[in-house]
Amino acid sequence: MHADLAGLGRRPDLTAELDALGDPSLTLARVLAQHRGRWLVATADRPHAAPARGRLRETPPVTGDWVALDRAGAIAAVLPRRGTITRRAAGTATAEQVLAANVDLALLAEPLPAPNARRAERFAALAAAGGVPAAVVLTKADLDEDAHLGAARLARRLGAVDGFAVSAPHGDGIAPLRALLEPGATAVLLGPSGAGKSTLVNALLGSDRQATGAVREGDGRGRHTTVARELIALPGGALVIDTPGLREVGLWEPASFADVDALAADCRFADCAHAGEPGCAVRDAVDDDRIESWRKLQREQAWIDDRRAASREREARGRARSRATRGVTYKRTG
Ligand SMILES: Nc1nc2c(ncn2[C@@H]2O[C@H](COP(=O)(O)OP(=O)(O)OP(=O)(O)O)[C@@H](O)[C@H]2O)c(=O)[nH]1
Ligand SMILES: [Zn+2]
Question: How many domains are there within the chain?
Fold first, then answer.
């Protein structure tokens, strides 16, 4: 990792991409937050609020992006992303909005004593669609005696890498979660309002509150704006994204593709992927981007269906096992 950018997270080798832009004066930076058409970017110097060049209007930088800054300190290019969290706006042609980029792990936060498994499943599917593995974090563990069991069970159901139960004010469960957050890794918190995400971030920060500080920046006209950091550096070297944009209700609402579904009834093949099959009724009538969004939703839905089937199978196996055990008992007593 580039020494100048230590503490900004593990980053892929972007030298080739930076060189390909053909301007040796460009420097690498990471986006810490977005705020009203400006981006808080961290460079070798202290963070500053940067504008983005006009050509980036179509694909604006987001929190977690690696970007190239020009000599004036403006964002000239967004470098290729790995691991994204993307929201689909229902029913629109420009259906997608990337909310966080270069994410290594999604923390699915649900509050005890009544975590919403279906909501967690939607968030897990969003993460999976962006190539991001997920871990379950049940918060407010002090409100449920079986917290750890519940976390393990939900993690299994969602195919998550791990399940934790944490009680932030008491510090319970924080250490094992910290151990999962490898130095240089970027995690994102996904969960409903009130789940205790901010409280959890503070617990992970411990006494090292400096990293959460808002940054005051002049905008050149004497006015000062305060930009809260959304990409937060933790003491162990991991980073965590806790953005307001990710909290909005509707993040997990499936998009409607009524138009695609109606046209698809006329495709020659019932399982047409609208990717160039003969007799496709969708491909010529619908925008490519929209078909791609439709495809992504299919992938998400397939992922959820797989998980449901796997969990039903596990339950059935469990029932069969307990029947078998009972059978043995009957034989003995009978
Ligand atoms: N009992 C208990 N309460 C908690 C715990 N963690 C957070 N809370 C409470 O839950 C409420 C919501 O916590 P926040 O951290 O603001 O939740 P959030 O997910 O950041 O919510 P938004 O900012 O609305 O997205 C607060 O009143 C916290 O004090 C916990 O471990 N146990
Ligand atoms: Zn088709």
Answer: 3
